[in-house]
Amino acid sequence: MKNDFIAGYAKITEDALKKYMPEGDAAQKKLYDAMNYSIFAGGKRLRPMIMMMTAKMLGKPVDTVLPFACAMEMIHTYSLIHDDLPAMDNDDLRRGKPTNHKVFGEATAILAGDALLTKAFEIAAKYGTEYADSDKVVKAISILAEAAGSEGMVGGQVIDIFAEVEDLEQLKNMHALKTGAIIRASGVIGAVLSGADSEQINAIDSYCYNLGIAFQIQDDILDVLGSEESLGKPIGSDAENNKSTYVTLCGIDEAEKLQKEYIKKAKESLEIFENTEELSLLCDMLVNRKA
Amino acid sequence: MKNDFIAGYAKITEDALKKYMPEGDAAQKKLYDAMNYSIFAGGKRLRPMIMMMTAKMLGKPVDTVLPFACAMEMIHTYSLIHDDLPAMDNDDLRRGKPTNHKVFGEATAILAGDALLTKAFEIAAKYGTEYADSDKVVKAISILAEAAGSEGMVGGQVIDIFAEVEDLEQLKNMHALKTGAIIRASGVIGAVLSGADSEQINAIDSYCYNLGIAFQIQDDILDVLGSEESLGKPIGSDAENNKSTYVTLCGIDEAEKLQKEYIKKAKESLEIFENTEELSLLCDMLVNRKA
Questions:
Q1: Which residues on chain A are in Cβ contact (under 8 Å) with B145?
Q2: Is the whole-model pTM more than 0.90?
Q3: Yes or no: is domain B2-288 CATH 1.10.600.10?
């Protein structure tokens, strides 16, 4: 059953992305190819899933959030393309495939990232109002942009590259921006578009905050224990790059203990809701994943 | 009088940008510094000006469009930062100052561009509704994103880098995307937020379309005739890079003749309006500029 509902959400996301992504024989076809290469490179679609599960838990059809779910995935994908660039992490592989700049060159990779980021806001604004009123759409766009920008994801990336991260508190703060902000925004936007009240929005936000940290801890554990084949990238790359992680800072055992605590907190945040089965299962699946 | 009203609009834009741009002692301060460096590097503020003049012509206070005017300038600025990168045009100077990546390094320049693009949508969504209803704000965000993305500015940049531009038609099509799309969007968003009807929106669109081409022709003429000092970048760089321009394709005299025709068409587009003095003067100033 587990795999079925996860696969179902992934398929809904893929189908919607196919509808929204540009294609065809334009003079800028190379750009479209580069955008499509990365958006359809086999992502887990975690952020769209959180958004859709939130809508469903709140009694709304998943369509309610579909344009924003795709927008969120476009923003996540652009961030991976830019993070992989030679000037940043200089990675050759992503999800087992050559990174965007390895296939299309650096200039096109930068522009494909720019175009995906821009397309996210286009899709949100152009199609969001098919499912929700304009007040909610504007609010959701504002949340999306704030989470993705200089006070969110991009800010976190700058800290990750340049700041010395030496203790757990600094590590948590960095991840809270770099990966946490758009995971939280996925749940919060799902709640806002579904007409949730502020108590419900805060509870979803808390669920995502804690899930996000547990998810990051799993990433750090897999970087040490995972296999290169299932991860699609070299293992041990964090340690090799002298990056602080939950594992390097407190060891595997303590990291796993911490992770359990965050998962517990995530599930407790759902207590005010009914129909929490999917979001609860998602926690277990994310920390049991091998890739 | 001319300089007064132009300087007035530029000052309104600068003041609003100061209000909207991030600052302070965050862990990502380096990012804020890079964003502020380029946004306050002495741009002409042409796009905000077009938007505000449009609102004023339509009888609205310029504040009506101020968040979007700043958003447009952020998008224009991010595009310059990314265009200057080593992987693209590899320029060392912009407006007489070292380019963003020369001062802050390539990684930060890429991220500062990303953050400015994202901030544009944040400001539009967060503050747009202080001056216009949500329906108009969503419509304006949609126009902004479409003009800036893969079917607009970014698409044009890809064509400029990779496609062979060999005749006037191809050159016009490239510029229609690369620089034309967001100039048109500046006028159209100004009209939409001011509650213009479709005839008025089309007329503003036509004005901007023609003004944009005349503006580009002036850029190409200045690249040959201008002085390095007043341009803030080396003259003759287009010819040196083997780039097709209005001047290389049809010579200075023909380019100047073409430019006059587009200015005439731009002014004719304003005939359905009253109070067209500022937008009309703007045409003359842009084609008489030396930098």
A1: 118-119, 121-122, 125-126
A2: yes
A3: yes
